[in-house]
Design a protein that fits this description.
This protein is α/β, with parallel strands linked by helices. The protein starts with a strand and ends in a 22-residue tail after the last helix. A six-stranded parallel β-sheet has the order 3-5-6-7-8-9. Strands 1-2-4 form a three-stranded parallel β-sheet. Helix 9 crosses helix 10. It is globular and about 50 Å long.
Length: 255
């Protein structure tokens, strides 16, 4: 399996602070059947500013250690960029790091504040620059939960959504789990990643895919799993027609 969203690099953000903890995460990933991870350190995070070169250097060094330790895991570059007005006004989008460097898929993190009015404009400009924005873990954002129409409009206009594995298996509580189910049912989810930040927690990817298969059918689980590989290859991702979240029950068939 591949995990397309993981904070495995030490000393860059709120992930592991030491190389030893990063190696523990790597061993846990392999134990759970993961052989490839996209490292997604925060850009403009609470702790540091992670530019392309710093991420490249960290990944090269970590992959070398993995080889030396005999851990069968490959780490690919990525970045989780915080949506901000400064990004809209001051940043050159080409300085941002897309998944696996040469693809057009770029992770965006919504702030924990009320949804700013400039988000849609920012995403439009990113799309005009050739990027495919991927909204990371919006199911855990309280404001998205209150205004699901906001996310529907982003997806309707070409954005993608990646949910955390823990959201579908209940690690973040029943409310987040129910909202995640609604997002999947409404064709508003395209990828699953662990969003793991530390050792000992586990990645939960296999459990998440199994839960999707149980609720929405094996075809849905396979599509989401396959989309992750398509992302890192820069290929066209499979997506269904998005629907607004309503009061109807969950669809048993995922299109």
């Amino acid at each position: 399996m591949i995990d397309i969203h993981c904070h495995i690099l030490h000393g860059l953000d709120d992930g592991p602070s030491t190389l030893e903890e990063s190696l523990k995460m790597a061993e846990e990933a392999v134990f759970e059947g993961i052989d490839t991870i996209v490292a997604t350190p925060h850009d403009q995070s609470r702790n540091s500013y992670n530019n392309r070169q710093r991420i490249f250097t960290s990944i090269d060094e970590f992959n070398e250690v993995l080889r030396d330790e005999g851990i069968p895991l490959q780490v690919l570059p990525g970045q989780e960029t915080l949506v901000s007005n400064d990004l809209l006004e001051d940043r050159d989008f080409m300085d941002l790091l897309a998944v696996n460097t040469n693809t057009s898929y770029l992770y965006l993190e919504l702030s924990e504040n009320p949804l700013p009015s400039y988000v849609k404009q920012l995403i439009r400009e990113m799309q005009a620059s050739g990027f495919h924005p991927v909204i990371a873990s919006p199911e855990k954002n309280v404001y998205v939960n209150q205004q699901p129409e906001f996310l529907y409009e982003l997806v309707k206009n070409g954005s993608f959504v990646q949910i955390a594995a823990g959201s579908i298996i209940g690690d973040y509580g029943g409310k987040v789990r129910k909202f995640t189910q609604q997002l999947i049912s409404s064709n508003l989810v395209h990828f699953i990643g662990s969003n793991n930040h530390q050792s000992g927690k586990g990645f939960g990817l296999l459990k998440a895919y199994q839960e999707v298969g149980k609720q929405f059918g094996n075809q849905a689980a396979f599509m989401l799993m396959n989309n992750s590989w398509k992302m890192v290859e820069g290929a066209v991702v499979i997506r269904g027609e998005p629907e607004r979240i309503g009061k109807k029950g969950l669809k048993k068939r995922f299109v």
